[in-house]
Amino acid sequence: MTTFFPFDELTWPQVAALRRDTPLVIPVGEGYDMAKLAEALGNAPAVGVLPPIPYGWRGSGLAVHETPFVRLVSGLLDSLADDGFSRVCALQPQDIDLGLGARAIIQPHSSQRRDASPLPADVDRDKCVIIPIGHTEQHGFHLPLSTDTLIIDAIGRGTEAAAPNEAVCLPAFPYGASTHRSSFAGTLNVGGRAFEDFWLAVVDTLVTRGFKKMYLMSGHGGNCSFLVNVVKYAGERHRRIFCATTWLHTNGHIAAPVLAETRLSGRGGMGHAGELETAMILALRPDLTHMARVVDETDFVATESYYMDWIEGGALVANPPWDDDTATGAYGAGSVATAEHGRLWLDTAVAEKAAHVREIHEQHRRREERREAGFGLWGSQELGR
Q1: Containing structural domain, residue 283
Q2: Cα angle at 112 between 177 and 47, to 5 degrees?
Q3: What DSSP string runs through 291-303?
């Protein structure tokens, strides 16, 4: 009998210890027949199931052009193969040709119904679409690979609940870009250009459907520079929308003072899998937080203009190898984290994001007023359309 285990609930040393002939599956959507999947995999004793891709394919409610979607899926499969896993595949709906060949298992899927609902609903066109983007990557010895996705999912859904008339939240997307992928097992990587192309295609689809305000909200630092490029491309391509992003969360004018007043670690204690992320996962999923395995690492090669902490410091932007600075994959002091602080910081993150949503609405409203009034070049026939 086949045992299915959630790959993203593992820590990276657990991934490193897996047999490399263990089948690993990335589902395109949810709700497949697992007995049929086991049969397709030869009834292997154990199968790792990665987080489902929530949208992007035809029938998902939010479809993009198949080329960027295929590149995204292929990049994820390549990441696992690069880690030495010999049996990796996508589990995909029938009647969709993703060109994956032997790396695809095809089954009937509910997304193929003609009555599949659009995502987000068309009645929410006047709201700001919150797009939470996490990742599946290592977080030291003590936190699961799903850390970034769990956190940004909670913040995105919390923001929608805090501003239900102003925001609608998409399901959290569990994959992003990691340029340090080879250092520690279990870290996936879509690839920077494929990541940008996919998210620009998502924006294109939303704009075509009449949505004008979007907030690309990342829980993973490696996504952020690429998301800046996405919003720049989107703003150039779609002149009457307001598509925005930020550097992660919990670091703006609302949340940063709370962090500064309540954190227990010094500078460097909140880099990655440190005090902040550990506290938040303690609050969200204590069952996946292994405090007995925490190893504090704060000996980052720091200078005045380049150091690692949650609120990035210094003028230099660089990307040296992670294993220069960490032996365990963690940057920070996870041992001092508490669930109480995790709940506080999640609440302040939601408050900050809700404030951003209101600003996005105000920005779009005020800009549209100028456009409609024919401000500057908007008075010309070409730009006024």
Answers
A1: 258-343
A2: 55
A3: GGG---B-----B
